[in-house]
Amino acid sequence: MAGAGGGGCPAGGNDLQWCFSQVKGAVDEDVAEADVISTVEFSHSGDLLATGDKGGRVVIFQREQENKSRPHSRGEYNVYSTFQSHEPEFDYLKSLEIEEKINKIRWLPQQGAARFLLSTNDKTIKLWKISERDKRAEGYNLKDEDGRLRDPLRITALRVPILKPMDLMVEASPRRIFANAHTYHINSISVNSDHETYLSADDLRINLWHLEITDRSFNIVDIKPANMEELTEVITAAEFHPHQCNVLVYSSSKGTIRLCDMRSSALCDRHSKFFEEPEDPSSRSFFSEIISSVSDVKFSHSGRYMMTRDYLSVKVWDLNMESRPVETHQVHEYLRSKLCSLYENDCIFDKFECCWNGSDRTRRACPGKASLSCPTSEE
User: Fold this and answer.
1) Most C-beta atoms within 10 A of its C-beta, which of 169, 208, 266, 311?
2) Cα separation, 307 vs 354, whole angstroms
């Protein structure tokens, strides 16, 4: 995993120059499949970076604080905690193996000393609590220092346990498990701005969950046709609006984006807004439908804009203008002449993500299967 330091390499004017910062993990070509990173997610403050891999593990990196002895150390991330989030499972009813690979990670806003995150594989979502311990209690009445029970007949006086310092210990404990709600593979999770609910999306449905309720969810989008032979598109990504808890968007394999308002109806079959860029007939080819599929959608922090990622480009949309994007950035235009070869080796089906920096001034397209290189900018 490589990181690019956006804050440490300023250029002239308002330009932002990206430069190499650090690398984590083995750089050898012979890497185990289970160690391949499948998703990354920064916490809201940027101090923590969570990565998930194909082996079902979550590794959290913490940004080092600047100190006088190492004035340039700020921005470097070191391992903070590692835990096994998911294990391989088997669906006996459908005779299908469920991979342990982590598809998405989302941090919840921090409200106390502990931090919480959601992680998901193809079928099961888990809520994890990440907490620190640097003290331990000693002087119990009914236990010895080594944990063995004391003889009650030999206890002649009551003791008040005291807290003593210990080496810092970071614990990851599962708090909730949300399962059995998706028939198809989960591709997105998004925490709502009310901090109480979140959504999960698969190819054909989007479900709404409450963080305290694990045994039921509400289906808010369902595009499954009565006859599966009539299926023409699937859901590729979904996200809640950062400020309006009733608004969400989801993208499709046809390159369209639908904005839904949950106040209009419980089942958002009818969208409030429909974003689609007209296709140039002269540029249409055999690969047009594949490369136009939107693989990721992200709201800006202000909520005024949203960014979408397809195979060759990144597009920025104004929520008040549905007809065309306000910006289009061709990030993989050099691949257009190689689409035939990419189709033959299935690389044309790779998925790519995108993200905003903290000030919404910079957009970043993150590569998918081949490598991961995302910003650690403080903006």
Assistant:
1) 311
2) 8
- Can you tell me whether residue 121 is helix, strand or coil? coil
What is the total residue count of the chain?
379
CB neighbour list of residue 141: distance below 8 Å, 6 or more residues apart: 150, 155, 158, 159
SS3 235: strand
298-351 pLDDT, tens per residue? 999 999 999 999 999 999 999 999 999 999 999 988 999 999 999 999 999 999
Of 230, 201, 203, 220, the residue nearest 293 (C-alpha): 203
The DSSP secondary-structure symbol of 351 reads -
Kindly give, in sequence order, each residue whose CB lies less than 8 Å from that of residue 119, ignoring residues fewer than 6 positions away.
Answer: 52, 58, 85, 86, 102, 104, 105, 125, 126, 128
Low-confidence ranges of the chain (pLDDT < 50): 4-8, 10-12, 369-379
Say which residues have a Cβ less than 8 Å from residue 229's Cβ, sequence separation at least 6: none
Environment class of 127 (CB within 10 Å of its CB; exposed 0-12, middle 13-18, buried 19+): buried
The answer to whether the beta carbons of residues 318 and 305 sit under 8 Å apart is yes
Query: Residue 160: what are its φ and ψ, rounded to 5°?
Result: -95, 115
Q: Which residues contact 338 (CB under 8 A, 6 or more apart)?
A: none
247: number of Cβ within 10 Å: 22
C-beta separation of 146 from 162 below 8 A: no
Read off the pTM.
Answer: 0.83
Which pLDDT belongs to residue 148? 80
**Tokens linked to 347:** 């690389």
Per DSSP, the three-state class of 179 is coil
Listing DSSP states for 61-120 in one string gives EEEPPP-SS-TT-TT-EEEEEEEE----EEETTTTEEE-----EEEEPPP-SSSEEEEEE
Q: Which of 307, 284, 308 is nearest to 294 (CA)?
A: 308
Q: Which domains does the chain have, with CATH numbers?
A: 181-378 (2.130.10.10)
The SS3 of residue 296 is: strand
User: Which residue shows structure tokens 């891999």?
Assistant: 53
The pLDDT of residue 309 is 96
165, 134 contact by CB (below 8 A): yes
